[in-house]
Amino acid sequence: MSDFGLFESPFGVRWTTLAMGATIVAVVGARRRPFVGVVTAAAWMTAFEIPYQIADALTHHRDAHLARTLGQDVFWLATVAGWIGWAHALGVRPDARWALLSAAIFALWVAQGLPYNFAGQTGPVQWWPELLNVGSKTALGVAYMLGAVAPSARPAWATRSGQSP
């Protein structure tokens, strides 16, 4: 524990999330196309937020409002899940090793009760949960970025039959 307060970006997300998103857009955009970079970054954020929001609801909102919370989450998640499918249609396949690392870190975080820091909190920053949050999210970001720039990361419809991508 520390007396140092959480310093959030003006966009309501962690600076590390913004940095990873910008890195994905820049690297994938330079190696493929800027549009694919944007879709890959959005798919990464969505792929992290879906299990995070569900785990948060089940861990911290197990009360009379659980059904309402899950209902809102399902609606919200359904509206953004298309990014993952869109990235898949563009040939983006997250690197399995990095995705598994992300899942392992996330599982450890959930096993510890999914504690997290938030903007405006009155207590000190919890550094271990912050490392698990950022580590899981960053590993998944690397998985998406590597999957988007891999030589095989081309949509099936963009290659002719019998030719390698």
What is the fold's blueprint, element by element?
Elements (H helix, E strand, L loop, with lengths): L14 H17 L2 H27 L5 H15 L1 H8 L6 H16 L15 H23 L16
Helix pairs in contact: 1-2, 1-6, 2-3, 2-4, 2-6, 5-6
Q: In terms of structural class, how would the helical and strand content be classed?
A: mainly alpha
Number of helices: 6
Compute the separation of the termini in Å: 50 Å
The low-confidence runs, each spanning 5 or more residues with pLDDT under 50, are none
DSSP strand count: 0
Helix content: 55-70%
The total domain count is 1
Radius of gyration: 18 Å
Mean pLDDT score, rounded? 86
Describe the biggest sheet? none
What overall geometry do the principal axes of the alpha carbons give?
globular
Strand content: under 5%
Name the helix and strand elements from N-terminus to C-terminus, one letter apiece: HHHHHH
Summarize the structure.
This protein has 165 residues and is mainly alpha-helical. The protein is built from 6 helices and no strands.
Structural features, described:
It is a single chain. With 165 residues, the chain is mainly α. It has one domain (15-153). Helices cover 64% and strands 0% of the residues. The longest helix is centred in the first third of the chain and has 27 residues, at 34-60. The N and C termini lie far apart (50 Å).
Features:
165 residues; mainly alpha; 0% strand; globular
